[in-house]
Write a structure and sequence with these properties.
The structure holds two protein chains of two kinds. Chain A is mainly beta. In chain A, 7% of the residues lie in helices and 57% in strands. Chain A has a single domain, classed as Porin (Beta Barrel). Chain B has one domain: Lipoprotein localisation LolA/LolB/LppX (outer membrane lipoprotein receptor (LolB), chain A). Chain B is built from five helices and 13 strands. The chains are: A mainly beta, B mainly beta.
Amino acid sequence: MKRFILLVLFSLPLMATAQEAISIFGYFESQFMGAKISDEFVQLQSNKLRLDLEGQIGESVKFGANFNYITYHGKTEWPVLDLLPEAAQSEAVLLEFFGIEMNPYVLPFVNRQYLDNAYIKLAFTGMDITVGKQQLSFGSGYAWNPTDIFNTKDLMDPAYEQPGHNGIRLDWPLSNLATFTAVYSPQDNWTSSTKMLQLKATLGRFDCTIIGAETMWQPHDYTQITLDLLAPGFVQIQDECRMIGFNMAGELFGLGVWGEFAMHYMDNSDDYEDLLIGMDYTFENGSYVIAEYFRSGIGIADKEDYSLNDWMRFLAAEQKTLARDQIYAMALFSVTDFMRLGLSAIAVLSDGSAALLPTMNWTLLENVEITAYGNIYLGEDDALYHSGMGNGGLVRARVYF
Amino acid sequence: MNNCVSWFGVISFCAMPFFPQVLPAQEMTGEAIIQKVNDLMNPSSTQAKIEMIVHGKGDKKRTFVYNSWSMDEGEKNLVRYIQPRRLKGQATLMLNHADDIWMYFARTKRVRKLASHAKKQKMEGSDFSYEDMGSGDSFLTDYQARRLDDDRINDLDCYQVALLKKQGSDVGYSKIILWVVQENFVPIRMDYYDEDQPERVYKRLIQSDIRMIDDIPTAMHMIMENLNDGTSTEITFREINYNMDLSASMFTERGLRQ
């Protein structure tokens, strides 16, 4: 298999030479991450090769794909329970086979090779249709997107590329100022598949969007383990969700402003609503500030009520947040034209915890970027951002080709 | 309208149609010269492939290559990066003379609407800001023109015109002085004066290598020097075409995503 992959990788540039319409590019990324957990400083290093291929046939057919190869080294199995408060740990179910205890609450970092995107885009006179595995990102928010039913962002790095999703996407411009979008992302059957309709229009200085979607929320119950002895796992729940949402982005009193609202109607759990409001500003010297407030109805208002399921679903990105009310703020300063320093802060209003994330982005050369993040958690032991989550940081070097 | 050198202007100043002068040179007022410059800098559409080299402090040098399109007399602008690879596919759409800006990030396939304050940001660390790229009528709307004594630069007879910032305008310069070639109305030198220190030249644009392309005198090379920090940005047109039949659908979110 590896030989085949290498053969394909090394053949691509030759194919590109032969077929000028095909463009091949991508990046190599090496990342070092460290965190102090309990009394130990644990380390994880990853290396990622992303190979993008894009091509065009005639005026109306485009295609694209990217192949990712990631290897992990160092601490490649993170015992998640060690990160959680004692109350949540007490709900955990540990397995025991023939006197040997097994901990299923482990976050593994396994070497992977996968096709993240592979799609064909057909551009007709009046509409575009994109078929295949593709990035599907919606919403105007930076740190959170309540109206995006496909992705959950990592607050440490909200601008990182999102994974591809299988689907068919139709974009139908109704005029130069309005576009209708429909997405169908197939699962096992129609009921469990994700359906989304969106109407986006420019009204004055604002982009306004109405979204309706139906999807199957499939979180796990981390207090129940399946009875499959060969591959024990957590029981998966099926909960049909219908979402009506609205988002906008524009300018008010000289500030960039945006907002998202989503109402979720659930079949088997309580309905809930998410609200996000954000604003940003760029100063004459290039410094940039951004702030967002996010209130999530699925988030828990009292930290005493954080359950194991809440924690695990948040850490597994099965839900967008754990806490009810949060603020994200970031300030970026240009030290030179090619280096920016920043400080992000996440404050959880509902449990009193906070995280500070100093950042540095340095464009060392035209195609070489160095990024560094720190994370310092300041909350009490049972709050969302407590030091037990692991103070530390990461350094990432990326070379584009 | 807050701008200094519009991108459309950047292209258009390099590419002004050769119109016969209506008035004898000595009878042209500053306002008439700037009106003429402004009228001539608005071809219906423009397409260009541009190389931009940013000379930072010390020996640091960065090269960018991008395609640029404009239509409706510069009211609509679209820029799409080709190089460096780090930015490949990233695009910026500016409508209403850069009052409305959208950015497309090719790696995340996201479109983000920017507020007008984002216009102040430097374009990839260059000496041009986004507002430099997108607004075209600022010389008429934000400045008062006054003709100065004629001058001669590089053996070319030039009108010298001072643009003085109007009260209430939020442009970033207190004054701009242009040296406009009398023969073809190409401004071959422009001095930008600091907003806070009105007597100090902040940036200087020099245009050169003027060639006739489709009967339009086109400066194929320009350099913007930042006299404050010693940096400069060179722009060279690898290709440029005028009055093409561009579709308005290019200048929409759909076009931005292509």
